[in-house]
Amino acid sequence: MLAPHIGGGHDGAVSPADPSPTDTSPPRIPVTAAAVPEPPVEPDAGEEHRVTVYDALGGQAFFDRLVERFYAHVAADEVLLRLYPDTVDMGPARERLALFLGQYWGGPATYSERRGHPRLRMRHNPFAIGTEERDHWLAAMLESVDASMADTPLDDGLRDEVAQRLREYFTMAAEHLVNQPG
Prior knowledge:
This protein is mainly alpha-helical and 182 residues long. It is 49% helix and 2% strand. The protein has helices spanning 53-56, 60-75, 78-81, 91-104, 110-115, 120-124, 131-149, 156-176; strands at residues 2-3, 51-52. Strands 1-2 form a two-stranded parallel sheet. Mean pLDDT is 80; it is low at 5-37.
């Protein structure tokens, strides 16, 4: 089962359970002259194992490629370029988006550590986002998703499922950020 991680919403947990966040020391293994290593514990066949979308897609590298493809579309789209105050150096915006997406889909909390809570509507409020901007943004992102999914290590069925979840998320996010009437 795939589970996205939303910094503040979903727990992004994977099974077996992660160690306690307060215990950061490595486990101690007593060693004696007669110690024989135990065989690895096999998971119970009935046990459910959850993997984040982030892990299934190969980690941050997937989101970095996705965002690079997206920004190639932005650079060629006058409607989208209007949304960027610095069209000469969009590197910081690219990095923020890639880190946000990685975190959202189950990766490390680097985005939140650097920028705090995402607060997407608040952060995008200074930019006039109407239906035209939404449609251009969504088209660019969905094309980027489709191109990026071809590079994933997933089988066809799982690739289709993950791609659909990404499309649904980006469709919802694009609609959510519209802040101009009409």
